[in-house]
Amino acid sequence: MHFSCVNPRSAAIFGLIVGAAVAVIPMTGVRAEGLGIKTTHLVAIGICPPWKPVDTQACRRSVDAIEAALAERLGIDDRNVITLVNAAATTEGLKAVFAGLSGLGADDRLIIYANMHAGALDPTAEVGPDNDVFVLWTKEKPAAVRFAVAEGDWIMASDFAGWVHALSAGEVIFILDACESGAVTPLFIEAHPLNDATRAEAVIVSAAASQFANFAADRSIALYSQQLAQSIAVSRGTFQQAADLAASQTHTAAIAICDPQKSAIEQAGLDPLSCAQQPATHDPDALLTRIVLHD
């Protein structure tokens, strides 16, 4: 299966090929803050560890595609792009990057894109804000998820969210392409204790809390990242419109990938709907609607 998960219930069917529809959470209000943004910064993270049955360069391709599309359509200067791929994307590597971003202010927009494996700390419980782990780079597979977290090789999604909230950027957009990525959305908006209620924030996730995130049929790149990069590159309009288009196209591509595997997924004891990858946009401040992609 072409997905990015750490949860053991998913690992049982890694030999299959998996899959997206669109869900947009309605805005609850629009803030005036962030309208004077002058500089956009991009942090792009891609982690395909060598012990996973996926080409380690797949995450590099995902990062390259997203970086190129965003830099072109949002006019991001190369000096404001930070790339962390594979061996560079360790806990210490991430901490150093966030430390370097500590000088961001109200006129800065920060976009964080991450393509990685993720899943439950406790596999017997549902994935959620308090039960989700981000799998960072390690040469060898850790003996257990809890050991990897305890030793600091992997991190809880809540800790990563804390680093994001601690920054003083005027706007933050977090794009996560990972299995069960929808489970962590609240952490990057209102549910984290460090959340700044006056800051405009948006979250884009590649799958619902109960779903896999797929790689493309040829396993060369993450499916949603591929579609999002293409949509940003060709869309004439807003960031939100590009995200909507990417979700729709991901769903279409996923149908062709998932349908032939339905029987095998059921035999593995999984719900075939877990393959029906559903990207979602969570944008309570209508931030993505206000960002127009440059021609």
How would you describe this protein?
With 295 residues, the protein is an alpha/beta fold. It has a 7-stranded mixed β-sheet, with helices on both faces. Helix 2 links the parallel strand 2 and strand 3. Helix 6 packs antiparallel against helix 7. It is globular. About 10% of the residues have low confidence.
Overall 3D geometry? globular
Portion of residues in beta strands equals 15-25%
Return the average pLDDT rounded to an integer. 87
Specify the biggest β-sheet.
7 strands, mixed
**Based on DSSP secondary structure assignment, what is the total number of beta strands?**
10
Radius of gyration: 18 Å
Residues in helices, as a percent range: 25-40%
Which characteristics define this entry?
9 helices; globular; alpha/beta; 31% helix; single chain; 10 strands; 16% strand; 295 residues; seven-stranded mixed beta sheet
